[in-house]
Automatic annotation (TrEMBL):
Gene Ontology terms: cellular component: cytosol
Organism superkingdom: Bacteria
Name of the protein in question: L-arabinose isomerase
SUPFAM superfamilies: FucI/AraA C-terminal domain-like, FucI/AraA N-terminal and middle domains
PANTHER family on file: L-ARABINOSE ISOMERASE
A GO BP entry: L-arabinose catabolic process to D-xylulose 5-phosphate
Limits of the L-arabinose isomerase central domain: 190-324
Entry EC no(s): 5.3.1.4
CDD domains for this protein: L-fuc_L-ara-isomerases (cd00578)
Length: 478
């Protein structure tokens, strides 16, 4: 059942579409007289490569680039079309000085696919076959130009018809989509961040310059007004959807549910109006305002499930990395480490009540409960409660190191099928690091990993590594 979206919007959740990638095929006119028709032949090769990768991305293939003007025109068209990245393929050798200035001004994430039409050298080859398959030394010349230009890029060497090559392109394309999305991201902060929380603080101008997210402060009063203006029909529609999606606590009154629904719809409407793809709320900013009855706990859970980034306590770093987790791996989940469980070599993961229910166990109902909460000093907030699905999972923390230096700390492991904790009325699960709790936590703390993070299902460390390569930030796996 789709989550209702009663606010008018042309927004397409970026995590729900394939990456959009341009293929830039490079060659030169030198071989035209020697091998008539070579340009057309190699253009067909580029089209075959794109077609073989059609499940990984939507491809726009440029005409073969044979000079500087061709290259610059093709990339301008990629940028104007709003593509997520550019994959460079050497169709023959092409001198790098024809693309050197282009790479010094490149705005889209780049991969250099070091491939050739034929996977093997054959005794039947003649000079034409040598020319068709000589991309490797063009890749060397071109990569040298990228390095000199200081351009971050990924390299993918392999047989273009192979499953391994497809998997690597898929990983890079998702990372390119995430990096491009971060560069245009706005993060809404309702009120102000939590006082004293140092690992969530960042120089917002340095953050904007290096990674792209822009911080938008949203007054709590704007949320209060928006809630009041919502039509009753939208509130009713959301509540009816929740009745079908969740096991709803009978103790929840109609008034409590309506107020929660207005908060969720009001937050989403303001995010749409301000162009924010991620947001953060802080319980004191809501609680001390004086106009709100409760905290928007369930709202955060369902908005994360719709593809918004989220973090608590005004943490824009964590909200941004949750958003990136949606684009990179799907269904980013905001969480933190609560306690270590040494007998199972695992860590209890949870947060105050916010969590993406898309990562919930598939053998238990997701519950919407009436839940007492002293933090914030307000009435009981309706809260969505579930346990994490057991299986492989990855944690990632975005660390601000000062200035334009950023680090991503990543841990792979597994959500274990641990015993239920019946009195814990929050989303939760136990994460067992692949390196063990002691080794993982020693390294996490040495690297400055923050206490808010994103969790994705699956082994995703290599995905995050490629994102860091393209974003030119440090990657640390613990």
């Amino acid at each position: 059942m789709p989550i209702p979206n009663p606010t008018p919007s042309d927004h397409e959740p970026i995590k729900d579409r394939r990456p959009r990638i341009g293929l830039l095929g490079i060659m030169q006119p030198l071989y035209d007289d020697m091998i008539p028709g070579i340009t057309e032949r190699q253009a067909d090769y580029a089209a075959q490569v794109a077609a073989s990768l059609s499940e990984t991305a939507e491809w726009t293939v440029s005409p073969p680039v044979r000079g500087r003007a061709d290259a610059e025109r093709a990339v301008r068209e990629f940028e104007a079309a709003g593509l997520d990245g550019v994959m460079v393929v050497m169709l023959t050798y092409g001198p790098s000085l024809r693309v050197t200035r282009l790479f010094s001004q490149m705005r889209l994430p780049v991969a250099l696919a070091n491939i050739q039409p034929d996977p093997a050298v054959s005794p039947s080859w003649d000079m034409a076959d040598m020319t068709y398959n000589q991309g490797i030394h063009g890749a060397q010349d071109t990569a040298n130009a990228m390095v000199r230009a200081g351009l971050p890029f990924e390299v993918i060497t392999g047989e273009w018809q192979s499953a391994e090559f497809t998997a690597r392109v898929d990983r890079w394309a998702r990372a390119a989509r995430a990096v491009t999305a971060l560069r245009s991201l706005k993060v809404g902060v309702f009120g102000y961040p939590m006082n004293g929380m140092g690992d969530a603080r960042v120089d917002e101008t340095a953050f904007l310059r290096k990674l792209g997210p822009e911080i938008e402060i949203i007054a709590p009063g704007a949320l209060h007004r928006t809630m009041a203006e919502l039509p009753a029909e939208a509130v009713t529609e959301l509540m009816e959807w929740e009745d079908g999606a969740f096991e709803v606590d009978e103790r929840l009154s109609k008034e409590e549910r309506e107020d929660h629904a207005r908060m969720q719809l009001g937050i989403e409407r303001l995010l749409e109006a301000t162009g924010c793809g991620a947001y953060s709320t802080h319980f004191d900013a809501i609680g001390e305002d004086g106009r709100f009855a409760r905290l928007p706990m369930a709202a955060a859970s369902t908005l994360m499930a719709k593809g918004y980034g989220f973090a608590g306590e005004g943490d824009v770093l964590a909200a941004s990395v949750v958003y990136a987790g949606h684009q990179l791996a799907g269904d980013g989940h905001f969480t933190e480490m609560y306690a270590m469980d040494f007998p199972t070599d695992s860590i209890l993961m949870s947060h105050m009540g916010e969590g993406n229910w898309k990562v919930a166990r598939d053998d238990e109902p997701i519950r919407l409960i009436k839940r007492p909460l002293g933090i914030g000093g307000l009435d009981d907030p309706p809260t969505i409660v579930f346990r994490y699905q057991p299986g492989p999972a990855t944690l990632a923390s975005l660390v601000a190191l000062g200035g334009e230096r950023f680090r991503l700390v990543v841990a792979e492991g597994e959500v274990i099928d641990a015993p239920e904790l019946p009195d814990l009325e929050m989303p939760y699960g136990q994460f067992q690091p692949a390196t063990g709790v002691r080794t993982c936590m020693d390294a996490w703390l040495r690297a400055g990993g923050t206490h808010h993070m994103v969790m994705n299902t699956g082994a995703r460390a290599e995905d995050w590594r490629v994102l860091c390569e393209l974003a030119d930030i440090e990657f640390v796996q613990v």
